[in-house]
Amino acid sequence: MASPILLWTCLLLVAAPPCCNAVGIGLRVPLRSGVQIQEEIFGPPRLRSRTPRVARDVEDILQDVDFVDMIDNLRGKSGQGYYVEMSVGTPPQKLNILVDTGSSNFAVGAAQQKFLKRYYQRELSSTFRDLRKSVYVPYTQGKWEGELGTDLVFIPHGPNVTIRANIAAITASDKFFINGSNWEGILGLAYAEIARPDENLEPFFDSLVKQTRVPNIFSLQLCGAGFYSNESESTASVGGSMIIGGCDASLYVGDIWYTPIRKEWYYEVVIVKMEINGQDLKMDCKEYNYDKSIVDSGTTNLRLPRKVFQAAVKAIKAASSTEKFPDGFWLGEQLVCWQVGTTPWHIFPVISLYLMGESTNQSFRITILPQQYLRPVEDVATSQDDCYKFAISQSSTGTVMGAVIMEGFYVVFDRAHKKIGFAVSTCHVHDEYRTATVEGPFLTGDMDDCGYNIPQTDESTLMTIAYVMAAICGLFMLPLCLMVFQWRCCRCLRRNGDDFADDISLLK
Predict the structure, then answer these.
(1) Peptidase A1 domain: from which residue to which, for each copy (predicted)?
(2) What is the pLDDT of residues 187-215, one digit of tens each?
């Protein structure tokens, strides 16, 4: 008969949570370096295939019980977003849906539109319910409008649950769907505050958590330029994984470092410092977060506020000064090309972002390589060359840590604990000299001062302003009132002195 201690141990192993909630985990077998383990599993860079990965240690086996079907469930094209297959309606209509952590609406093409090969046909679904409301959503690029409803939704390579979710049926759009992107809708994974038409429209992930036992957490591994396809698919095709309900230890190496979610609307975080090749930009940390800093899988570039962008580009130019590039390259308007296999990665600096840590006055840094912020682009005119676009751009809406940042890391959106985790991804692109890193902790000053707050005037100030304006108006009105009073008195005196009424005085 088994001892009670052994039975309890087995129960604890079976009930082990699907994701790590702190830096490091208890059951973890020590791992080798990121580069070493990647080359052992995937082979050298540029030689990886889509062959499913095999669990390598105890934790992987535990994780794979829940998440093996979700591994490699994302597809896409570099610069055009990552999508997951979803089934909508009864009978199911399969659609590819863009995964976007920078918005909150679940919306699908519901009419014939430019660049759409298929679309959601509401009239064919017996479970569709019309909410009789319209919705309009603009993005940084593109916009759409549609009609709200609800229907049954299932993710084939996701949790084994079907839910009723709010759906925006897109009836018209402008520069939203992308030629050749192969997705027909968008899955907004952010919070209700930024949902359209208002925050009362429950986002998809909120519905999923409420209607099922799926934990309030998901994680993304975007493989980007580091994931190369087989011969049967386009050479521009990339992949990745969206793990719904937890995180999978086979998708990252090292520890997961967490930063608090500052505000639950976008996935807003706080950047406390930025370095180019280890050199601090030495800017007021508020500048990095002006007017917010967010993690957004639906944006391609690393977007920076104007002052930060200018300082960063100046530093990158200085570091790569051995070669000259046209001004249009730094603006994202021109490509630069080298002969295949001769890209001088070594002349470009690494970029480090320091994020607020969970502990007081501590931060950690994520470091990205030029292989991430120089995005490969297929140039028809020079198909024999390796061509790249500068994937750092200027922003008027704050810092956006887009796909080029996320492609180096396994990113955990722990909504239940209001934090976002970063660990080095097992599929990020690297060379023999440098690799993306997540390191910490670093002692930092008062990081609460780094977050940007939109100036707001409190109620007492508004009341004071109102009283001052009333007093000014009173001063101007007083002489006028005195003049009117004097004129009326004179009229009364004259009328009392006359015995007849002038008919002209009755005309108005």
Answers:
(1) 82-423
(2) 999 999 999 999 999 999 999 999 999 99
